[in-house]
From TrEMBL:
A Pfam family matched in the record: adh_short_C2
InterPro entries tied to this protein: KR_dom, NAD(P)-bd_dom_sf, SDR_fam
Organism field: Microtetraspora fusca
SMART domains tied to this protein: PKS_KR
Domain Ketoreductase: 15-201
Protein name: SDR family oxidoreductase
Length: 268
């Protein structure tokens, strides 16, 4: 199906194919489902096949096609199989959302295990570059878009978050440099930087904090939300919608940018 004229519906992804890495509960699922709701067919990549199957069913229920490809993005051959499978199934790739992520060790830089830091860089930075490079020729054919999922860790320097911030700062530099390199080919590269996301993992953490303190989960939520301008925490779909915007023709003049999605917790 031919892509729509961007002026008809600039937020539409109709006729486009979007690859999403790191598909799972929470944001990974939302990125895939919201892309499908915008009209895209999707390629789902993650290590856990059961998660891929669940999200593929949701996409199919929306009337869009979903291709599930179990993928270890730290492995060159696995990434190559993903790229080949996407092109074999659809013949094109118009968008790539790099959401795969591994939490670096949360420890002071003065004592952190350097091998663990290296492993974090492999998944969060080098593997992202690997997958983007493999799909660049296809993206360039149709003037595609790449979205890097970054983090609000960019905006603070709290203790024990040093290795995390190093990896995400490197990812931001990667995105900006790729925007410059790939721009002449018509490929846009942008980042989103969410902070807290009100999804299952955070809900579990807040319940744990509430039990420790002898308060309600709602109180923990309200205290955290009070640090944001909107007095609430963003949900996965709200973060995913910003990624869909960057994938869409509505952002056709936007590249090299990082959009914070944090309900006003940090200003940039």
């Amino acid at each position: 199906m031919a892509a729509q004229d961007p002026m008809e519906d600039p937020m539409s992804l109709e006729g486009k194919v979007v690859v999403v890495s790191g598909v799972g509960p929470g944001l990974g699922r939302a990125l895939a489902v919201r892309s499908a709701q915008a009209g895209a067919d999707v390629v789902l990549a993650a290590r856990t096949e059961s998660r891929l199957a669940e999200v593929a069913e949701e996409v199919a229920a929306l009337g869009r096609r979903a291709l599930s490809v179990p993928t270890d993005i730290t492995d060159e051959a696995s990434c190559r199989r993903l790229a080949d499978a996407a092109l074999e199934a659809y013949g094109r790739v118009d968008g790539l959302v790099n959401n795969a992520f591994a939490i670096p060790p949360l420890a002071d830089l003065g004592t952190v295990d350097l091998d663990a830091v290296r492993a974090g860089f492999e998944t969060n930075v080098l593997s992202t570059l690997r997958l983007t490079r493999l799909l660049t020729p296809a993206l360039a054919e149709g003037g595609g878009s790449v979205v890097m999922v970054n983090s609000a860790v960019l905006r603070h320097s709290r203790r024990t978050f040093g290795a995390y911030k190093m990896a995400k700062t490197a990812l931001l530099s990667l995105a900006q440099s790729l925007a410059t390199e790939l721009g002449p080919q018509g490929v846009r590269v942008n980042s989103i930087a969410p902070g807290y996301i009100w999804a299952d993992n955070l809900k579990w953490y807040f319940r744990s904090l509430a039990r420790e303190r002898g308060v309600t989960t709602r109180q923990v939520y309200d205290e955290t939300a009070a640090t944001t301008d909107l007095r609430r925490l963003p949900e996965p779909d709200e973060v995913a919608d910003v990624a869909v915007f960057l994938l869409s023709p509505a952002a056709r003049a936007v590249t090299g940018q990082c959009l914070d999605v944090n309900c006003g917790e940090w200003h940039h």
